[in-house]
Structures are given as structure tokens and as C-alpha cells.
Amino acid sequence: MPVTTPAAPAAVPPSDTALPQDFGALARQDPEIAGILQEEVLRQSSTLQLIAAENFSSPAVFAALGSPLANKYAEGYPGARHHGGCEQADEAERVAVRRAMSLFGAEHANVQPHSGSSAVLAAYAALLRPGDTVLAMGLPYGGHLTHGAPGNFSGRWFDFTGYGVDPDSGLIDYAQVRALARARRPKAIVCGSISYPRHPDYETFRDIADEVGAYLIADAAHPMGLIAGGAAPSPVPYADVVCATTHKVLRGPRGGMILCGAELAERLDRAVFPFTQGGAQMHTVAAKAVAFGEAATPAFALYAHQVVAHARVLAAGLEAEGFEITTGGTDTHIVVADPGPLGVDGRTARERLVAAGMVLDTCALPYGDARGIRLGTAAVTTQGMDESDMARIAALFGAAVRDGADAERLRAEVRQLTERNPPYPG
Ligand SMILES: *Cc1c(COP(=O)(O)O)cnc(C)c1O
């Protein structure tokens, strides 16, 4: 299929989000659920969303998500469906696929995976047999559940070995990756993580995979939006298969996608449908197309670069507050910080921060058993915050974690920040 430039919609400036829905009609029919949704809007509007995987999708994305395409059954692929009446569904999927291929320079795109995990499941299904050996980032270092967790299909059906990071630098130890690859002869090597704040060295991963005859799967769920905006290197030229989410920094609907070369296209498509999924969620596919269109604009490239710049300001500010920053900083939207020097571990730090209106995750640290905190700048950047706001947030972090008692005053300060840059204006 030729790679064509998508007809991109008008740029969506970072702060141009609006309340996605008028809950009036819903409130009349079902006040119980409408009340919950309204409370959630209030929660998102009055606290800081610093969970690295979260973002605010545009009203255009929500419009597609809430459209009647949600009612359409469309098993199969455009031009080869198991249901009638798929003309519009086919067109929507063709547009989404074309835009994804163009945006990421890929020979093939599958936009049907229901989630990032579904995308990874399909990639494994296409390339591996149960019992095969896989090398991926170890869970204590930021590997995702789908990278061999015992409670996940990946850990149950495949034989995973985890690589780690250098305990001093926090950086991936490529000599260790190569040694493990030589010793284990994996069928596939997975690069990508939930909390590694630096770019994987895709070229070195490719070299190691080639040396041992393994497939290289890049799980780029987190940085895919940065890649779209030119703010992070792309794994597409190096990996056999790239799995991603369309939410997170990419700012689209919740969902997954897979990119690969033409020679694996048919295997990947069959691994998604019919092997691991039934009917595609066509409203989500349409919303993915909208998000790819937005991500192709200069405004989104600016956004992606701002997200990284903001994470760097936040990392430097947290370091000044006494946090230890793993890898000494960040190249992405993710900052991983150890609050240990402030006398608490990640769980207590998160409790105090959430109480003060700053919502984020704990995460594993590359050394020892104590947990750290992981935060991301995708959502606060979408709502229009700037570098001075990031410096302010870092100061609030210090105050919250050091003396967690003053949560009320901090909440008021957080509200000042969110009122100046509301995620849902109006
Ligand atoms: C988020 C993420 C996933 C899973 O995405 P879901 O949509 O939550 O299933 C998989 N791999 C990595 C590296 C991720 O960050």
C-alpha cells in the first residue's frame, strides 16, 4: 500500500480541550452514573494528573468515540468483513491505517488491538509458540506485565528472562542484554518499559537480536506520542514489530496498535483477528484516525517537545528538593524519583502527594527493595501548563513529601494551578 500524507485536521492547541460531554440527558435518565461522571470531571479538573500513562484527549476524539460507529459490528478487515453494511467502517479503518503508516513511516499498521496488552498478545501470537524463550526488561526494572509477569499470559505461556539496568547509572546494561541473549538464545527480544525515562538504543537491540537470530519487538506504548511528534527516536526502522497504545502521550482513545514490515503484515493481522480478538471497536478505530490526524500537525510536534522539556524541568526541580532522580534526569515524559533522601519511601510519598492533590504512581527502583514514584508530564502539558508551573509543582512535591500534614494548603495551591489551566475549560 502506498504511503500517502493524511489530510490532517486543523491543529488542536494544547489548551483547546472542552468538557467532552453534556451530562444533562444522562442525568435525567440515570442520575447515579451521571453523578459519578460529574465527580470524576471535578476530580480531574481540581487535581494534577501526573500518572505517566494518562492524558486528556481532544473533543474531536471524544466525538468519534461517542458516535454511532460504536453500534457497528465489523469482524475482519476492510473489504473482507464477516458482516454486511461495513462501507463506512471500512473507510474509517482505511483512513486510520493510512494515517498511522504515514505518521510513523511504517509499511503496515493494524489499528484494531483493543489495548496495549492486546497488541503485545497479538505480536507474541504472530511470532512465538508457547514455551518459547523471550528476553525482556525485568519487571523490577520497569518491564510491563506483558513482559513475563507470573500473573499475566506472558509469564504463563512463555519462558521469560529479564534484563536489568546498571545499579549506579540506572541505564540499560547492553553488555548484560547481549550476554543473556547469547546464553538463552531467545526467539524474541522485547525493548520498552513502563518507567525507563531514557530512550532504548534500538540500533544496539537490533544488533543483539541479529546476532542470536531473534525477533525484535519494540513495546513503545509510552513514547509513541513523542515519536509521532519527533521528540523521541523511532523504533520503526529497527524492530520487526512495534506495539503501542493510542492513549498515553499520543493523546488518542484508549486502545492499541501494531506496526510492522510488509512481510509480517498478514501474520500480524491474523494474530489480531481472528486469533486474539473478535469484532473491532469501530468507534475507537475512527477515534484513532482522528488522533493520528492531530498528531501529524506542527502543534502536536510542539506539544511533544514541550512534554519532554517539562519533564526535564520537573526532574531538576525535584532533585533540588532532595529527591534522587533515577538515571539523573529524563529524555521522555517520565520522571522516576526516589524520595528516600526525604525520609520516606514511594508508598508514603504517593499517599502524601495524592492527599495534596497530586495524583501519581509508585514504581520499582533499579536498586534495593524500596519503591520510588513515577510521574509524567503529558496531561499537565495538554492542559497548557508551562515551565514555571513545573517548577512550582516540584516545590509542592517537596513540601508535600517532607511535611505531609499540610495537605489542605497544598490542595489550594494545586487548585490555583488547575484553575489557570483547566483541562475542560467552560
Ligand atoms: C501501557 C503499556 C502497555 C499496556 O497497555 P494497556 O492499554 O494498559 O493494556 C503495554 N506495554 C507497555 C510498555 C506499556 O507502557
Query: DSSP strand (E) fraction?
Result: 5-15%
- Ligands present: pyridoxal-5'-phosphate
Main pleated-sheet profile: 7 strands, mixed
CATH superfamily of the largest domain: Type I PLP-dependent aspartate aminotransferase-like (Major domain)
Number of domains: 2
Measured between the Cα atoms of the first and last residue, the distance is 43 Å
**Which geometry do the CA atoms define?**
globular
Q: Which spans of ≥5 residues are poorly predicted at pLDDT below 50?
A: 1-17
* Secondary-structure arrangement, i.e. CATH architecture of the largest domain: 3-Layer(aba) Sandwich
Write out the strand line-up for the largest beta sheet, numbering strands in chain order.
4-10-9-8-7-5-6
What's the level 1 CATH class of the largest domain? Alpha Beta
What percentage of residues falls in helices of 4 or more residues? 40-55%
Notes on the protein architecture:
The protein has helices at 24-29, 31-46, 59-65, 87-104, 116-127, 153-157, 174-184, 202-212, 224-228, 265-276, 282-295, 298-320, 346-355, 378-382, 387-402, 407-420; strands at residues 48-49, 76-77, 80-81, 108-110, 133-137, 159-163, 188-191, 215-219, 241-245, 256-260, 324-325, 334-338, 358-359, 361-364, 371-376. With 426 residues, the chain is of the alpha/beta class. The chain has two domains: 64-295, Aspartate Aminotransferase, domain 2 (3-Layer(aba) Sandwich), CATH 3.40.640; 298-420, Aspartate Aminotransferase, domain 1, CATH 3.90.1150. The strands form four sheets. A seven-stranded mixed beta sheet has the order 4-10-9-8-7-5-6, sandwiched between helices. Helix 6 links the parallel strand 5 (133-137) and strand 6 (159-163). The model is unreliable at 1-17 (pLDDT under 50). Pyridoxal-5'-phosphate (PLP) is lined by residues 53, 115-117, 120, 144, 146, 192-194, 219, 221-222, 245, 256.
